[in-house]
Amino acid sequence: MSLVRLCRPYPGLINKDVKVFNTWSSHRASTSTVVRDDPAPSEIKPFSAVPGPKGLYSVPYIGAALHFKPFTKFSANEINDLLTDMRKKYGDIFKMKFGKENMVYINHPDDAKTILQAHYEVHKRISFDLSETWAEREKVNKGLVLLNGKEWADLRKPTQEKFTNDFVDNLKKKKQVDDLLWELNNYTTESVGMLCFNKRLGCLDAGKDSPAEVAVEARKFMEVVSTETANQNAFLTKLKKEGKLQEYLEKEPNFMYSLLADGRLSEDQISSVVSDLFGAGIDSTANTLVFLLAQLALNPDKQAKLHDEIQQVVGDSQHLTKEHLAKMSYLKACLKESQRKIFPISFGVLRILESDLVVGGYQMPKNTMFAINNRSMAMDDRFYYRPTEFLPERWLRETTGEIAKSKEFPFAHKPFGFGPRACIGQRFAENEIFIAATKIVKNFSVSMPPDVKDIKTTLKIFTTPSEKIKMNFVERQ
Ligand code: HEM
């Protein structure tokens, strides 16, 4: 099983009959350039009228390949530039061949809203791995949904802080790192490993073979998951027999126990849930942290502003509390802005329609595949003031005027997706990122070599830097 399969947030495909549901876009933007009227029913156009490349480009499989080198200037890695080009040519909705199907690309927040808010019963997924057997995993899905919410995200806060401190101590010794993503992979593996297995994996211990290394190799990765699941199961069963389980759980809330206690799930199924979480939780958060720290390094004025906020809110306190985090609006704005500048999911948020739907004036039939082109919207000056700049201020509650126009288009930026199948790890990831960023910026001034002016990315499920990121960590006095 590939790590892509484990990490991808778009597991397999299932088919069920669903009700017909019709709606059309209702968002009203106040910015004159983007106000759009809902079409009268007589004006609704058929799917065949959705614009897009035609002729050879619409031949299954071959059509998609013709958009790339050597036929055009775009490499596969530059698909987002190609899509932005297409938007300029065809407008906010266009379709292109994706294998043998059509993929409809959505470039306007109104239409993104219509699609994300539509009614989905089964949430078919667009799979990147044809060997996927979702039916197997569907049985455990309810477990995942039950886990959605604040409680389990809070489970690991105290230990999270402990190993964030270890991570910071390591950085104090190192002073600079040549591969920031690798360091952060260790941090996020430790973090999500603690969530999944209730124990430290030792990723941050000097001189030890890092489980993060193990995690990038799929076979060993599954070994870690199944061994730890079995260990955890045995441990909890022993506590239960000894009558000590309740006491243990009160002191040490346990994520895996909530799955084991569910009774509907076998150990294999729990391994499957946990491997999803473990896989999805490593690359996603590590890359997001890399880009956040890189943006702060590239924008020292914003870093100074964040440091001021941290000093004001946290001061000399050794412990970060949730009250501290609640007050740090600039920190949250920095993360949101960093995710806007570099959208974490390379392909954007994807959906398959389960019933007919009018989107942007077109009648889209059931089973239409949509890609919300978040990256293109993020750089669109109809929705963002000076979109190429890192401006966390645009997200602050008190900011008004043109700079804040992004707040009128919440559906342009959904880095964790939306609705019942939105990211299950959002709160956990945000906590992890906020704690790490606060501790790092509190302790260090971060910078990159002076010749680095921007971050280039490469196309993976989770957007990742195309080159190793070197970062200096200069301890603050
Ligand atoms: C910054 C970090 C992360 C980002 C940006 C991110 C983003 C996403 C996105 C965009 C989706 C698809 C949502 C949709 O289609 O509406 C998703 C799904 C998912 N994410 Fe995350 N994620 C992150 C961290 C995590 C973590 C830490 C975990 C686990 C601990 C996790 C577990 C999952 C799972 C299991 C799904 C599939 C949910 C389902 O299909 O019901 N993610 N994520």
TrEMBL record:
It comes from the Eukaryota. Its cofactor is heme. It holds the Pfam family p450. Signal peptide: none annotated. InterPro entries: CYP11_CYP27_families (IPR050479), Cyt_P450 (IPR001128), Cyt_P450_CS (IPR017972), Cyt_P450_E_grp-I (IPR002401), Cyt_P450_sf (IPR036396). Heme binds at residue 423. GO terms for molecular function: heme binding; iron ion binding; monooxygenase activity; oxidoreductase activity, acting on paired donors, with incorporation or reduction of molecular oxygen. Keywords: Heme, Iron, Metal-binding, Monooxygenase, Oxidoreductase. Gene3D superfamilies: Cytochrome P450. Belongs to the cytochrome P450 family. This is Cytochrome P450.
